[in-house]
Amino acid sequence: MDNVRLSGCLLDLIHTNVCGPLNTPARGGYSYFITFTDDHSRYGYVYLMRYKYEAFGRFKVYKHEVENQIGHKIKTLRSDRGGEYLSGEFIDYLIENGMLSQWTPSGTPRLNGMAERRNRTLLDMV
């Protein structure tokens, strides 16, 4: 499933996931990280976080940077049903910015396989 591209253009579909808490926090007290991976290019970003609730702020930074650099807008954000993605503030932001949200069913990490695989690769490196 990881090798199947679902999108035809950059930023059509972004896979995201939060990982943590890490067994040993990174320098600066970072216990979590969030990944964003473009489905079309497989290019990914990683942001360190001290707390899960920082996910929304990291997404806004990511969105601003990639849309500015690429000149396209994010169309769809795919995530698990983690609470960090389900806040009213996060959902309202997606709607206000014309983005669709795709939430994978609880207990089915394989349906968000690209994000899960990226996290596993990063954890193996640490």
UniProtKB/TrEMBL annotation:
<feature type="domain" description="Integrase catalytic">
    <location>
        <begin position="1"/>
        <end position="126"/>
    </location>
</feature>
<dbReference type="InterPro" id="IPR012337">
    <property type="entry name" value="RNaseH-like_sf"/>
</dbReference>
<dbReference type="InterPro" id="IPR001584">
    <property type="entry name" value="Integrase_cat-core"/>
</dbReference>
<dbReference type="Pfam" id="PF00665">
    <property type="entry name" value="rve"/>
</dbReference>
<protein>
    <recommendedName>
        <fullName>Integrase catalytic domain-containing protein</fullName>
    </recommendedName>
</protein>
<dbReference type="InterPro" id="IPR036397">
    <property type="entry name" value="RNaseH_sf"/>
</dbReference>
<dbReference type="GO" id="GO:0003676">
    <property type="term" value="F:nucleic acid binding"/>
</dbReference>
<dbReference type="GO" id="GO:0015074">
    <property type="term" value="P:DNA integration"/>
</dbReference>
<dbReference type="InterPro" id="IPR039537">
    <property type="entry name" value="Retrotran_Ty1/copia-like"/>
</dbReference>
